[in-house]
Amino acid sequence: MFKPADMSQWQGRIDDVPDALRWHQTVKSWHEKQNSDNATVLLGFACDEGVRRNHGRLGAKEGPTAIRHALSNLAWHHHSAVFDGGDVICEDQQLEAAQRQLADKITAILNNNGRPLILGGGHEMAWGSFLGLSNHLQQTAAERRIGIINLDAHFDLRAPTPHTTSGTPFRQIAEQCDAQQQPFNYMVLGINPLANTKSLFEFAKTQNVTWRDDTNCTREQLPSITQQLDHFCQQIDELYLTICLDVFAPHIAPGVSAPSTIGIEPLFALELIERIKQRCSQHRVTWRMSDIAEMNPIYDIDQRTARLAARLIDATAKVYNR
What are the extents of the domains in the chain? Predict the structure, then answer.
């Protein structure tokens, strides 16, 4: 099911002085035939059916609303518009239908020159996100190589046995790339070795996946990570960035479906976003879309996780709007 943007969610403080705008005063509703001129279009994925199938903690279907509330009162420092495109809602455990609808909405945004930024929701959203971008490129007859950078404690490369879950999206993407004789360009930063089995590491090796453990994702190691980004960006034309909030330390991001143990720090993630932007510019890669996964407000404390998600979204929107 699709629910158009509910603009009543966007509320906050109003300062009656010049140059004191906040997000809730500037975000506009988006419709499918609207040319967006490379502006950010937010789209919610209100679903945790993949998490349920993966035996995780339910509640991520409320993530998009929690993220919007956290965004609403942030100060506005952008130069172009941000739109709200509404929510794709998973009903009656129909995950596959919700993923297809998400893909269709993303394709529509891209076809109208928008840059989708998806608010989750479980990480099963990644399959719909990838399909949306892939379908857009096929419709434009553009033979462009897609690269995925995932900030995540998990590979999410499990085989669907028998059902797809929040742990299978990148396996599904790998299989589709293989079927279509396209490269599977996948980089994962923040892996928790104890949350991924040996078989997952072995499969990642067979697919030439690039990864770094959480203990090797610090600000001091950004120079070596940047070298990896250079190599990665040389192999792609389009970038899809996906951030799973369980990649962060649990005291920073408690509101997730599968809490981490060590995790990465927010400053590392923010600096990494800037490095990715620089590398994309240098290698002429189009940063086409992004998403934020596993926001679970039921387990959040003082809106820590939602506020972190909002900060990451603001940083990504700035990249889009430059």
Answer: 2-320
Whether 313 has a pLDDT exceeding 90, the answer reads: yes
Give the pLDDT confidence of 265-291 residue by residue, as tens digits. Answer: 999 999 999 999 999 999 999 999 999
CATH class of 2-320: alpha beta
Reply yes or no: is the peptide bond before residue 121 cis, omega within 30 of 0: yes
DSSP 76: P
Q: What single-letter amino acid sits at 254?
A: P
Q: Residue 195: is it exposed, middle or buried by C-beta count within 10 angstroms (0-12/13-18/19+)?
A: middle
N-term to C-term CA, the chain: 33
Burial class (CB in 10 A: 0-12, 13-18, 19+), 32: middle
Q: What are residue 242's DSSP bridge partners?
A: 150, 291
Beta bridge partner(s), residue 146: 238
Say which residues have a Cβ less than 8 Å from residue 214's Cβ, sequence separation at least 6. Answer: 153, 190, 191, 192, 247, 260, 262, 263, 264
